[in-house]
Amino acid sequence: MTRIILHIGPGKCGSSSIQSALTAEGSAYARQTVILPQPLIRQIDTPDLDPSLEDQVGALVRDVMAGSDLAILSHEVLFNRVDALANLARVSTALADEVRIVGYSRRQSDFLGSAYGQWHFRSPERTREVGEALTSAGLDPLLFSGLERFHIAAVLTEMATARQLNGAAILHWGPRYEGLARRAADLGASVSVGHIPGPAHPFPLVDDFYRRAGLEPTPAGEGGERIVNGRFDPGLIEAINLGVMDGVTLPGPHAHNDFLAAFPVDPVASDPEEAGFLDDLRAYVDTVFWPENQAFSRRFGLDEDYFRPRRLLSRPEIDAIVGEQARARQVDAGRAARHRDRTASVRVKALYDAYLATGIVAV
């Protein structure tokens, strides 16, 4: 039986780890796996696919399947590029006996934290939008850390400022996957949806992918997960976000990750009160999506406890918590000054300028 697997991400849901395992030296699936080029995905993301592009996609799939009964096509942007995915599925069903689409999800609050720590903290446009959301609500942005500001703005704008930097709003897993499943069924393909591991739900992500794709685990996928997109130092993230707020030129989203990765990750001891405040913000985010996530879990056979909020909070309750934090910080000079200190930002800017000139990060 010939099979084609379409792995669609989305980003921040384990895609790099899955792709790394599939293409690793020694993987039984390295030859049958292709990470689709983004320019091609953009070209085929149309409801009316040009016949020449359809032929190009068909040739690519046939080339991957040459001498095999399997092809694995992967890219995390496919979750957002629904016409591109539909065209891939349509071409694939003409070339294989089975076409299976595999995608993932995660707690929305965890997604926000991960997306902020990878991209949003260094985006001038989004940083400005987040600051304006707080200012419009009568809040001084500099009373809060960058991560707190990001979550507060998400609350105030009903998650609008939490959208992807390309404008895509992808946090509604249930409706999106339901729509994909219906469209896939019309094309003769099936959909399997999972969630990535979490502290209370540990499991090997790559093995879960193999299971959902109907593949046998390979030796390269055993022995633990390899984290491909590591986290950046929290202090560095805060320093860069403050610099970006001030209009300082620093690495933008997707730029000079090697510079950022050169800083050792130093887990800073956080203020328990501020940590509790961030937990409340995260709990509210998960509360917003809880009814939707329950239906999503039932529809796709997932454990709904994975998405269960740490506590349920209403909008008036979280508004009151934010207001209380703002008032407390205004009268506490030490805490207020903590989020205004530019010393680290100035140092990072100097190191960045030296890096651009020499290619060396002198941390």
- Number of domains as seen in the coordinates: 2
The whole-number mean of residue pLDDT values reads: 93
Helix share, percent: 40-55%
String of helices and strands: EHEHHEHEHHHHEHHHHHHH
Summed up, the helix count is 15
Name the poorly predicted regions: none
Characteristics:
single chain, 363 residues, 2 domains, 7% strand, 51% helix, Rossmann fold, alpha/beta, five-stranded parallel beta sheet, globular
Structure summary:
This protein is α/β, with parallel strands linked by helices and 363 residues long.
Write up this protein.
By secondary structure, this protein is an alpha/beta fold. It folds into two domains: 3-107 and 169-221, Rossmann fold; 120-164 and 231-358, no CATH class. 51% of the residues lie in helices and 7% in strands.
Please specify the SSE layout and strand pairing.
Blueprint: E1 3-7, H1 15-23, E2 33-35, H2 38-44, H3 51-65, E3 70-74, H4 82-93, E4 98-105, H5 108-118, H6 124-136, H7 146-156, H8 173-187, E5 190-195, H9 205-213, H10 234-245, H11 257-261, H12 272-300, H13 315-330, H14 333-338, H15 343-358
